Structure formats: structure tokens, C-alpha cells
Amino acid sequence: MSIQYTSDEQLTFQYFFTICDKTDQGILRKDMATNFLQASGLNQQILKTIYEIASSNDKIFTKDEFFAALKLIALAQDGYYPEQKLLTQNIPTLLPQIQGYQHPIYDIPEEQMRKYETYFVKLDKDGNQTIKGKHAKALFSKSGLSQDKLKEIWNLCDIGEKGHLSKGEFIVAFHLVLLCCKCKYPLPTRLPDSLLQLAARISINPRIRLESNQNAVPQQRLGSNSNLLNQPRQRLGSDANNGIQQVQNFDQIQQVIEPLNANILPGYDQNEMNSMRQQINDSTQQVYKMQNQFNEFYQNNTLLNKEEMYQLQAQNDKQMND
């Protein structure tokens, strides 16, 4: 049985699995899994049905079985009676709500970004707004993460495979290192939209002060790992933030939007939406790569112009002395 999960589901389910996998063996004892899943608040009969569908063993839950159980719990919380066929129908749902546990959030708080900027300034000794691999490795290795994990983070953040990290890329990489080592967050297979756009925005204009970013308006989509809707943002060059009421609950917004997507938008399909989202991310990365190439060209051209000016100055000085 092939079950397709959204990127948010994969990250959240992996995070919940890591929390439950106390022995780090890649499997869960039945009692460990059931104790966790009971925090969903579903009645015992519904949970029993979910266990029977998802698990093929009375003693353990594999990772795939645990993921399937979480998917069924999310569907049950949305009002569906758990059935095996639901797992392959790609029904849009909210993430499962497990009492006492939060979904992983990858966005970077403003205060944390300022700390990352401080480290960047310390490492960027020549002031060229980039960090070389050896300097980043020396810092990130202090986290205790394996070299393979650090390499994965580097490959995620070194957009365009330049061999160095721009300011925005360094901030995102440092954030992922801390999330993996301190919070035990799973490493995404691709950067979440909010982090990708943050890296691009800061790297295009690396000299902006991060503490002034509250006036920026990152293009964020519903359904990504973000709490941006809980923070009212002012539009650039306007007083549009005045009089706007703060959104209290992001899940309430999804409860309204998802049914609209499913029932009103013609041809709405979760796989199609995921494909479109991936295309947009690929386009963003391509534009970002072109921007990096332009910056390198600009820097090289500036250096050549400076060298020519020095040569002309030297010739003038020599003529004056003669």
C-alpha cells in the first residue's frame, strides 16, 4: 500500500516518531506508540480500529505503520471514520493534534536571527559577506551532529553549490543545526518555503539589519511550517497594519481554507498542489542562483576596476615625479 504524505506531514510524523523512539532502534513498542496516540483525544473504539488498520504486529509499530496511524488519526479528527482505503485517497487534512506535543516549526524568531548574525560577522573576517566551508564546519561541528548530517545541512543551504554560504544561507544552516541537535527536529529533504525565501531575501541584500525585518513581508503559503500569521506584519511604505486584528489561531484559518480548496477550487488535487509548490520552489532557487552569479560577476568586475584605477594612479604619480 503506497501512502503519499505532504512535506509537513513527513516532518511532523518523523518528529513524533523520534520523540517516541526512546531506544533509537527505528521501531516502537506497541505500548509506547499507543500511549502517545491516545493523547489524540479519540475514543478507544476509534483508536482500536486505527491500530488494527495500521499495525500488522501485536508487539511493535514500524515507522511506516506509525505514520499511517497518525494519518488516520488526522482523518478521524476531521470527521472521517477510519478505513484503510482513506490512506490512498490523498484527502487534504490538517496535521493531527496530539495533546501535549507541538508540531515542529522551522521559522526563525527575530531574536534568534540577531544571534546568528553576530556569529556571521565574527566568521566573515574579510567582509565579503560569505562564509567558507572550513569556517562553517568548525563552528557547526561543535553541535555534536555527525559529519554526514552536517553535510546534508550544507547541501540544503548552499544553493547553487557555490562552495560557500551567503549571509542568508549561513543563518538558515545555523538554525537547522540547532534544531537538529537541541530540538531533535528531523532534517527536511528540501528547505521549507519560509527558510528558502529568508535566505534569498537576506543574501540579495546582505547588509540589511536583521532587527529591522519586522517590516518585511515574506511570501508565505498556508500549510507550511510557519507561525507568521500569529505576527501581524506591516506592508512596506504604508500604515496598513493599523487597525488589523491579530490572528489568534493558525489552525482555525486552515479549517476554513482547506474545505474551500477542496469544494470550490475546480480540479483541486493535493498531488497537483504539491507539484505546483515544488515548481515554485525550483523557480525560486533558479532565480536565487542567477542572483548569486550576478553578485560574483559584480564583485569580480569591481575588483578589476579597482586594479585599473590603481595602475592609472601609479602611472600618474610616476609622471608627476619625473
Automatic annotation (TrEMBL):
UniProt-annotated stretches for the region Disordered: 215-235
Record lineage: Eukaryota, Sar, Alveolata, Ciliophora, Intramacronucleata
GO BP term, pick one: endosomal transport
Family annotation (Gene3D superfamilies): EF-hand (1.10.238.10)
Domain EF-hand: from-to ranges: 145-180
Organism of origin: Paramecium tetraurelia
Domain of life where this protein originates: Eukaryota
A Gene Ontology cellular-component term: cytoplasm
PANTHER family: EH DOMAIN, GH06923P
Entry-linked Pfam families: EH (PF12763)
EH domain span: 112-202
InterPro entries reported for this sequence: EF-hand-dom_pair, EF_hand_dom, EH_dom
Gene Ontology MF term list: calcium ion binding; protein-macromolecule adaptor activity
Designated name of the protein: Uncharacterized protein
